[in-house]
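Action item from last week, closing it out:
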Amino acid sequence: MITILCGGTGAGKFLHGLQRAFGGRKASRAITAIVNTGDDLVWWGLHVSPDLDSITYALAGMLNHERGWGVEGDTFECLARIRALGAPGWFALGDRDLATHLYRTGCLREGMTLSEVTAELAAKLRIPTRILPMSNDRVETRVLTEIGELSFQEYFVRERYAVRVGSVRFVGATEARPAPGVLPAIAEAEAVVLAPSNPITSIGPILAVPGIRQALATTRAPVLAISPIVGNAAVSGPAGDLMRAHGLPVSAVGVAKAYCDFLDVLVMDTQDAALAPQVEATDVRAHVCNTMMRDDATKEALAREVLRVAKHTKFRPRERATRS
């Protein structure tokens, strides 16, 4: 059993590779995905969960891999009409994608939790992988920028992350509780992996929910992370700017520092092999391999390598407990 903390496009690619490594969709019931919901927003009156949807679509074989979000082959007739009516249209929802948000919003209004709706959507799409939101409570990622404080989607989509960032905060995190199943999924896993996701705004909100970071520090499973930084830049998205704003080096070393209080192994790209000694100076073991997921074969190869490393990584309780 393997538990993945995830959000963003890199996570979808890795989970697709992991699904293939396990032998296809049916075999992926051994996987639990704990997904960031700090990006969630209300758009056109609907509850939209971008990371939950991307992970769900990836595992269902529906994801538009070129964009990294939305449904493959979707149309945008509703979006065109909304724009013609003069309503905001910068956050683009496809027509088939829209059905997911309509269904989710209706279920939530009837009293279902986000966990329950997520499980029902996965079941309807015949996904055996357990997909868990990090929390059923509202946690909102807010980005302080040179033009004011923005929601994550305003920063990422509307402004195309082109504005300078000062800091990031997670509103509601301190009062939130992990969703049912989240802490047991970490405690009972044979391995825990942090997907190659943005450490600040994809993994950061998950870690901000009380109890989750401590669960990672105390689980008897090996905890691994895949660096989303190759060289001195993110593979995609604004992770570099956000890490820099939080005083972290934009490198694999910065990723290790972000997680060093609970991390056992950082899987980093061959381009960064020279940084391995600096990573290991944080008391995190470095493992170097190809992490660039360019096609199905390289996605699966990375997943198999991560599983192999996890199998040979031993639990180190004293070292974790004394890291700073």
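Closing note: The chain has a mean pLDDT of 93.
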